[in-house]
Amino acid sequence: MNLLDELNKIPKGRWLYYTQDFAYINFEQAYCDSFEFVQKYFNLGGKSGFLPETIFGNANDKADRKEYDLRAKHVVSTYFLGIYLFKKIKFFKPGKTSLLAEKNNKNEFLWAWFLCSLYHDAFYNCEKDDSNTNTDIERIRDCHFGYCKNSWRLLYDKKTIKKYYEKNQKGKEQDKDNYTSFNGEIHYDHGILGAEWLYINYKNKLDELFMSEENRQIYKLGGILVDENGLKLDKAHFNAVCNISKVIASHNIHICDKNYIDSNGHKDIDKYRNAKLENLIPGEVDFHKMPYNKYGKFGVYDKMYLLLSLVDSIEPTKKEIDLKDIDIEVSNLNNYKYEIAVQYNKLSDMDKIKQTISAMPSWLKYIVVENNGNIIKITLDFSSFRERKYL
User: Domain boundaries in the chain?
Assistant: First the structure.
């Protein structure tokens, strides 16, 4: 069955976290109205202020319109495709732990995945063109990575995220004619900006409510605060936001391509070494495929990182591939091993995305990719995955 039909089959109760009335009845409606869908979904949870002014790009700029629409559609498709794979691949379920420490919240994955997937590309326009920056970006341009304190055991550490982000930032303070960032262009990293924005907005809301000593005590004792828009604020949600921000930032950190030389003759490997990012260079002593931590066991947010990285790599819209021209099938080979077979009706479509998918095993654990004619098979083997009891 083609991907569009598969995603359309997902019942509304499986993709809509909130209980309020919502105009969209299936994936295709949301996909065709992607920008409005994202905005309205955030509004349902009292998070209308969590989106930047020019989310995905400037909709009024005709030159930018096509890419703006593609990016918004990619985000919505990522959200639904993640839900589809979450249902098919039992490994991605939380297991022994809870994301929000709410025993009766059966849909807590939807809450976390909604923020993670719908937010991972919210600042995409800022990476493409510095002229797109606005007052919102000015607030968070100098990232402080506060979410790392509450997610210190998860994925990339603060030093790596900070070095990766600042390497791009240095070009804005120096001679732009002599500057090349990791990909040869001056840009802000949209994933790290999105992570910072999500964290800062939630933290600022807390700080506003903490102006009342009564609210501060309620929070301290584990109670739930609710602002005027219906946004829930408590320790569990704050810790979850920190972890989700870390997932978003980490998934956008790219390892070094040791064979890549940009148009100015600069080697990728030299840029990473100059930034003291040897842990992102394959073959170096400190390099590890992700997810990794020195404690050896992993939790629900490591799984979410894997899911976001996988879905973001295979989702076809951002490569301008029609969802009707792809067939997808997920097979459970055993309790720990799964296979995702993606068949492309047009070889030209497969060529657009093959390199991105084939590169996944170079930076992600548990994944093997095989190309066979017009089919790409992705094998997920989690037999060596050890789950920890904490988040």
Answer: 3-316
